[in-house]
Specification:
The chain is of the alpha/beta class. The chain folds into 2 domains: about 20-75 and about 350-450, Aspartate Aminotransferase, domain 1; about 90-345, Aspartate Aminotransferase, domain 2. Helix content is about 35%, strand content about 15%. It is built from 13 helices and 16 strands. It has helices at about 20-30, 65-70, 80-90, 100-115, 130-145, 165-170, 210-220, 240-255, 305-315, 330-345, 350-365, 395-400, 425-445, and strands spanning about 45-50, 50-55, 60-65, 120-125, 155, 190, 220-225, 230, 240, 260, 285-290, 300-305, 375-380, 380-385, 405, 415. A hairpin with a 4-residue loop joins strand 2 and strand 3 (about 60-65). Helix 4 (about 100-115) packs parallel to helix 10 (about 330-345) and helix 11 (about 350-365) runs parallel beside helix 13 (about 425-445). The chain starts with about 20 loop residues before the first helix and ends in an 11-residue tail after the last helix.
């Protein structure tokens, strides 16, 4: 049978030149969190270097998002590019089942050396969401190996975000997440109130009452606690007190529960520590890493665990860990990660992040006076203006582009997480744009014009 996908009048021919066909993109490419019926505008990027994106019309934008928090070294960094070019000439991919290679071994060695002493085993995954899925599988298989198969629930806190796959969705915020959209397919987990004591403020021990009660009443079915340490990212860019995290570690030890830390957004210096758990001086049983792992140059994530967890998994009825992605341990991705971590290990990030933090605190302080700004907060290389209403991403996105910056608001937040390599003048352009747009929202007579339409 000869089935034609398109009639001759509908035949879609490839573009002969190198321009980006934005109309084809709009009609056929599905971007994250968009509708194909009412798509958000997409801006065509033809190249990127340093902290600047070049659009196809020649305009340059200072990137305030590090491409969703991943490109911490900026774009086209010669060390990472050279490492990937060299690896493509030698070994771009090979199955990781029964085969190993130098990039995977050296990357694992670096991760073991960089993280806390307890973390000795490394599982290389495809993406952050998968790293979270892997961590949850590890926790459940661990308890099977300990002859406690009833410990199958994950305890987490509200306002969290851990990814979009089904297991990861189940531990995202139950109200702002996707629980109601996919019904019974989303596993019911246990949720405590979000931490309320802010980073840098006085810790209120009363906020531990609820989660302590949940431990006491449910510990026989709780396999692990899963939380983003110190900073809740896509769930609201909230910075909470380190003592809350330290208390979680103590509760896990008391009630024999594993602690999973999701450092996909916070890892590798973003909060001012190499890993956010260092703010609380604790260790995880299982640690999820991603985003900046490769400097944002190619997708790769890692889930690390302790010897104790690895033994429990190996003692489970399966006898092996039940996960194995096709592109696990991809040599090209591992080579990019090695180059990225070598840059991290040069320790320049500490001075860079400290400088970014100081400048953002100074330059964003003015926005506290805006009546439409609920809160201004800065931690490490993260700066946030929390507005008092939901924002229209499409309209504000265009305003930021017109100002020569790439800042992508979401919900009621205008935030930046720039590459560590940004200059003071470039950072000032970002903070100025944030305040300019925020002040325009404040002065607008038509508040509804800024309410998100998806």
């Amino acid at each position: 049978m000869n089935i034609k996908k398109h009639s001759t009048t509908q035949l879609i021919e490839p573009s002969a030149d190198q321009t980006i066909d934005l109309e084809f993109d709009k009609n056929h490419l599905w971007h994250p969190y968009t509708s194909m019926e009412n798509a958000l505008p997409a801006f065509g990027v033809v190249s990127a270097e340093g902290v600047e994106l070049t659009l196809q019309n020649g305009d340059k934008l200072i990137d305030g998002t590090s491409s969703w928090w991943a490109c911490v070294h900026g774009y086209s960094h010669p060390k990472i590019v050279a490492a990937m070019q060299q690896q493509t000439q030698q070994l771009s991919h090979v199955m990781f089942g029964g085969i190993t290679h130098r990039p995977a071994v050296e990357l694992a060695r670096m991760l073991v050396n960089m993280t806390s002493e307890r973390l000795t085993k490394v599982f290389l995954a495809d993406s952050g969401s998968i790293a979270v899925e892997v961590s949850m599988k590890m926790a459940l298989q661990y308890w099977q190996g300990k002859a406690k198969p009833d410990k199958q629930k994950i305890l987490t806190v509200k306002s969290g975000y851990h990814g979009d796959t089904f297991a990861a969705m189940s531990v995202c915020d139950p109200d702002g997440g996707m629980h109601t959209m996919f019904g019974e397919l989303v596993t019911k987990q246990l949720f405590a109130p979000a931490p309320t004591s802010c980073f840098g403020d006085t810790f209120d021990p009363e906020e531990l009452v609820s989660i302590s009660d949940m431990f006491e009443n449910n510990h026989q079915q709780i396999a692990a606690v899963l939380i983003e340490p110190i900073m809740q990212g896509a769930g609201g860019m909230r910075f909470y007190h380190p003592e809350y995290l330290a208390a979680l570690r103590r509760l896990c030890d008391k009630y024999d529960v594993l602690l999973i830390l999701d450092e996909i957004a916070t890892g590798f210096g973003r909060t001012g520590k190499l890993f956010a758990y260092e703010h609380a001086n604790i260790e995880a049983d299982i640690l999820c890493l991603g985003k900046a792992l490769t400097g944002g140059y190619v997708s790769l994530a890692a889930t690390m665990c302790s010897d104790k967890v690895a033994k429990g998994v190996s003692d489970s009825p399966a006898g092996v860990f039940m996960h194995g992605p096709t592109f696990m341990g991809n040599p090209l991705a591992c080579s990019a990660a090695i180059a990225s971590l070598e840059l991290i290990n040069q320790q320049q990030w500490q001075a860079q992040v400290s400088s970014i933090e100081s400048q953002m605190k100074s330059e964003l302080a003015d926005a506290k006076a805006y009546s439409n700004v609920v809160n201004v907060r800065v931690l490490g290389a993260v700066g946030v203006l929390e507005m008092n209403s939901t924002l229209n991403t499409a309209e504000l996105q265009q305003q930021f582009v017109d100002l020569g910056v790439w800042i992508r608001p979401f919900s009621n937040l205008i935030y930046i997480m720039p590459p560590y390599t940004i200059s003071a003048s470039q950072l000032s352009k970002l903070t100025t744009a944030m305040k300019t747009v925020a002040s325009q929202i404040e002065l607008s007579d038509d508040k509804q014009a800024f309410i998100s339409h998806g």
